Amino acid sequence: MKPIHNISRAGIAVASLALIATYFVPLWRIDLWAPQYPEGLVMKIWLSKLSGDVEIINGLNHYIGMAHIKEEMFPEFKILPYAVGFYIVFGLLTALLKNRKMLVSYFVLIVLAGVVALYDFWKWGYEYGHNLSDDAPIKVPGMAYQPPLIGYKELLNFGAYSMPDVGGWVFVVLGVVVVMALIYEFYFSEKLKKPFQKSSIKPAVLWAIISLGTISQSCTQTTEPIRYGKDACEFCKMTIVDKRYAAEIVTDKGKAFKFDDLSCMVKYLKVNKLDESTLAFLVVNDYSNPGELIDVKTAVFLSSKDFRSPMRGDVAAFSPKSFATANKAEFAQAKMLTWKEVVAIF
Asked: In degrees, to the nearest 5, what angle opens at C-alpha 184 toward C-alphas 150 and 10?
């Protein structure tokens, strides 16, 4: 069997060595949001410990009968440091020995580790969220509190968000690198060998482009469609109905907060002291095209009592294109505002 090419060896070696970082950064995190904790609570899971607001979370969970989270309940903490060490050594040996069979084995081991880790986390979450104390001060018949495996989930008045932390993303990158190495070794290096010999494009360049494209796509964030008549405003808790005035915030973690009025969104930003530069999206509906979300930084705003928006913020947003074609006579008494001025008046 042919040996692994140098570009694949380098990628595997660097990605494997990057696992050393997982000894010093958390692997996973669970964030909690609630009206009484607008700044949020977080629990971080490391290779061998827990950190964050664990004691506060335990205090809250006591009221609904959930067990206290302790490091002793995770026997995995004694195994994980050695398991990661094994993966580092195996990856380096794969690169050193140039063995394609070892590369395939490394891929299988990484997939197996991911499946086992997710199942183990799901199993713990299921038992933790379903085995409730009969002496709990607050009991909701039929209610379970299993945290989400990945992504967002509502638990009573809390929103829970579960996702990889820095260490987890290191593992994701390792997996992507190994997959790209497999694709290159068993497909591109053979199928495209002749074209590359005649082309100025090097295999290493293509390999890097594919890797970066895959990683960037996995990190893409987007706005979340507003379900009119079903979703509630995050600030005033009223059901969002009017498509002309709804707005939305999407955090850098992909969590979406929806509002029935622009004034509610601005007040939510201020109350929770959110830095706009850290948000992925800050959008509002185009008044002339109800239901179409536009960026607040490029929108044109008009303020008038005649708008009669749901919470009487009475500010409407227009895209530059829709404003240019709008009937100006209809808004003759309205005052034009910039986004900064909108923020200032609420």
From this structure: 85
Measuring CA to CA, which residue among 293, 305, 279 is closest to residue 225?
A: 293
pLDDT at 35 exceeding the cut of 80: no
Contact (Cβ atoms closer than 8 angstroms) between residue 214 and residue 51 = no
Residue 241 three-state SS: coil
DSSP state of 94: H
Residue in 25, 324, 319 with CA at minimum distance from that of residue 167: 25
Q: Is 111 helix (H, G, I), strand (E, B) or coil?
A: helix
pLDDT per position as a tens digit, 276-295: 888 999 999 999 999 899 99
Q: How would you label 208-229 residue by residue, b for 16+ Cβ within 10 Å and e otherwise?
A: eebbeeeeeeeeeeeebebebe
- Asked if residue 251 lies in contact with residue 279, where contact means CB atoms within 8 angstroms, the answer is yes
3-state class (DSSP) for residue 75: coil
Q: Which two tokens stand for residue 183?
A: 């694709």
Q: Give how far Cα 92 sits from Cα of 5, 86, 89, 178, Å.
A: 14, 10, 5, 12
**Maximum Cα–Cα distance for the chain, whole Å?**
79
From residue 316, alpha-carbon distances to 169, 182, 233, 294 in Å are 40, 53, 17, 12
Encoding tokens for residue 229? 């008549």
What tokens appear for 42 in the block? 């977080």
| Global pTM value | 0.59
Spatial distance between the Cα atoms of 274 and 38, rounded to a whole number of angstroms: 10
Count Cβ neighbours within 10 Å for each residue of 104-130 and write b for 16 or more, e otherwise.
eebbebbeebeeebeeebeebbeebbe
Q: Which two tokens stand for residue 321?
A: 């294109």
pLDDT at residue 218, as a whole number: 46
